[in-house]
């Protein structure tokens, strides 16, 4: 085989060859073919753009012994056919040198092979921005004429994942992910005024549903609101959380929803006596927090793709089918994240994580509609986004973080200006119990976690007493 052939070996062939080379008792191979395209801009002008492609191969070897089954996992990038045997042998050596795996179990078998398993990977290119880029140029011109500067980036990625196992699974999933972050800046008003800044973000599959001109108009409105600035002290305020902020908080809540940790008494979902709070009511509103690999527009892998074991994920679960899962149903805790192993330990249903998250609250009103009812009995706040979120107390899931790029004052149903930023201290679990209204659910991009978890749909939430614990000097 020539060197050129080595470099261009198709991913499904790489998977089959690695499985053929394996001498282990069990073997799982995952080939991830990734391509990406990006645009970056500053001060109303493009600065950089680029396209990248890469391949990562993960080999998981399992070795049976008298004391149990051990696993060895090795991942490498830019793998060619020449690299395969050393990679497979390294995984086998890792398994042979390891003790029995706590999460060991039979590899998943059965299932229908993906019809596209033997086909070339999907790829993105700069063409994904064919309609978006000219519209962005128009937005630059409009912003420049109005005295504001636009900064930001657009990123699109397509990952084709090929999963093959010694038990016969041959599965494939193509995952598109697109994100846009757009920031507008303008001078402050007055000699000692704080510079004005506003942000919007969007998640998309292909950029055909992203309108830079509409986003620029939204930013212009926010900068106009910021022409008047008022200082407010720390305290508890009626607060409107936009979908992006709700996504930030609930993604963290999902990441903290380990069934095993809850059963062992270590999380907010733990109950005294070694049980969990499944079945208990968490929200007074009829909120349903769910994941579904088939959710239109938010499609995610319909089977487990585990490159390593840990917590409530297991390499032995690779290929396990995923379906709709309700984490909270009508306000009550319904499921916690489990692998087959942690489900067996805790007695909970098997519920692996799914790569999207949706909150349904039954509302139909936009955040503009929610503003129209806010601030009737005192100042209310409209947030843009949250930032620098960190955990303070796992027992209550108390989080702290900052507001950023615009906190707006609402009085008697009207935005009347901008206020200073704050540090907040809140638990998303506690917030769900206090939220008094949910707007309509819409696709959104989490400001803090969007790079890791871009597939979310959330409503805006009205919280009557959001805790702004201190004033922040950031913008």
Structure description:
The chain is built from ten helices and 22 strands. The strands form four sheets. The chain has a six-stranded antiparallel sheet. A six-stranded mixed sheet has the order 13-12-11-14-21-20, covered by helices on one side. Helices cover 20% and strands 38% of the residues. It is globular. It has helices at 3-8, 11-21, 84-96, 132-146, 212-225, 243-255, 259-263, 340-346, 367-371, 428-434, and strands at 26-42, 45-65, 68-77, 149-165, 170-186, 196-204, 229-230, 235-241, 270-271, 275-276, 288-291, 325-329, 332-333, 357-360, 380-393, 398-411, 414-419, 421-426, 437-438, 442-444, 456-458, 461-472. The chain is of the alpha+beta class.
Overall mean pLDDT stands at: 95
How many E strands? Answer: 22
Spatial strand sequence of the major β-sheet: 3-2-1-4-5-6
**Major sheet:** 6 strands, antiparallel
Distance between the termini: 58 Å
Helical stretch count? Answer: 10
Low-confidence stretches: 1-7
Q: What keywords describe this structure?
A:
20% helix; six-stranded antiparallel beta sheet; alpha+beta; six-stranded mixed beta sheet; 10 helices; 475 residues
Could you give the topology of this structure?
Elements: H1 3-8, H2 11-21, E1 26-42, E2 45-65, E3 68-77, H3 84-96, H4 132-146, E4 149-165, E5 170-186, E6 196-204, H5 212-225, E7 229-230, E8 235-241, H6 243-255, H7 259-263, E9 270-271, E10 275-276, E11 288-291, E12 325-329, E13 332-333, H8 340-346, E14 357-360, H9 367-371, E15 380-393, E16 398-411, E17 414-419, E18 421-426, H10 428-434, E19 437-438, E20 442-444, E21 456-458, E22 461-472
Parallel strand pairs: 7-17, 8-15, 14-21
Antiparallel strand pairs: 1-2, 1-4, 2-3, 4-5, 5-6, 8-22, 9-10, 11-12, 11-14, 12-13, 15-16, 16-17, 16-18, 18-22, 19-22, 20-21
């Amino acid at each position: 085989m020539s060197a050129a052939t080595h470099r261009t070996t198709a991913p499904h062939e790489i998977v089959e060859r690695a499985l053929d080379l394996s001498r282990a008792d069990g073997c799982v191979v995952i080939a991830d073919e990734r391509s990406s395209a990006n645009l970056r801009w500053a001060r109303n002008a493009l600065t950089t753009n680029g396209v990248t492609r890469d391949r990562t191969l993960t080999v998981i070897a399992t070795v049976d012994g008298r004391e149990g089954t051990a696993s060895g996992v090795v991942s490498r990038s830019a793998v060619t056919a020449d690299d395969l045997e050393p990679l497979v042998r390294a995984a086998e050596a890792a398994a042979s040198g390891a003790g029995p795996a706590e999460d060991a179990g039979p590899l998943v078998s059965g299932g229908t092979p993906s019809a596209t398993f033997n086909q070339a990977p999907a790829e993105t290119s700069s063409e994904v921005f064919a309609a978006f880029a000219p519209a962005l140029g128009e937005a630059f011109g409009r912003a420049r004429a109005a005295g504001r500067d636009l900064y930001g980036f657009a990123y699109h990625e397509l990952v084709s994942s090929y999963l093959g196992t010694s038990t016969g699974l041959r599965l494939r999933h193509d995952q598109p992910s697109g994100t846009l972050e757009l920031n507008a800046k303008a001078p402050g008003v007055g000699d000692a005024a704080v510079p004005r800044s506003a942000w919007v973000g969007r998640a998309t599959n292909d950029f055909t549903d992203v309108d830079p001109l509409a986003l620029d108009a939204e930013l212009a409105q926010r900068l106009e609101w910021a022409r008047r600035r008022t200082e407010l002290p720390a305290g508890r305020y009626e607060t409107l959380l936009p979908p992006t902020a709700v996504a930030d908080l609930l993604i963290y809540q999902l990441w903290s929803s380990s069934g095993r940790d809850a059963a062992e008494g270590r999380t907010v979902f733990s109950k005294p006596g070694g049980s969990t709070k499944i079945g208990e009511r968490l929200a007074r509103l009829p909120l349903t927090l769910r994941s579904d690999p088939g959710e239109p527009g938010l499609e995610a892998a319909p089977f487990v793709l585990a490159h390593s074991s840990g917590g409530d994920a297991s390499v032995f679960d690779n290929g396990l089918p995923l379906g709709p899962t309700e984490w909270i149903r009508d306000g009550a805790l319904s499921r916690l994240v489990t692998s087959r192993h942690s489900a067996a330990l805790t007695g909970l249903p098997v519920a692996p994580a799914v790569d999207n998250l949706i909150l349904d609250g039954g509302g139909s009103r936009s955040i503009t509609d929610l503003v129209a009812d806010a601030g009737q009995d005192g100042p209310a706040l409209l947030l843009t986004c949250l930032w620098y979120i960190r955990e303070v107390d796992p027992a209550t899931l108390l989080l702290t973080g900052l507001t950023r790029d615009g906190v707006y004052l609402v009085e008697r149903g009207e935005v009347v200006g901008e206020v200073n930023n704050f540090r907040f201290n809140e638990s998303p679990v506690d917030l769900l119990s206090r939220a008094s209204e949910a707007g309509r659910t819409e696709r959104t991009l989490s400001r803090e976690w969007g790079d890791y978890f871009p597939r979310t749909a959330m409503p805006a939430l009205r919280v009557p007493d959001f805790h702004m614990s201190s004033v922040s000097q950031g913008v």
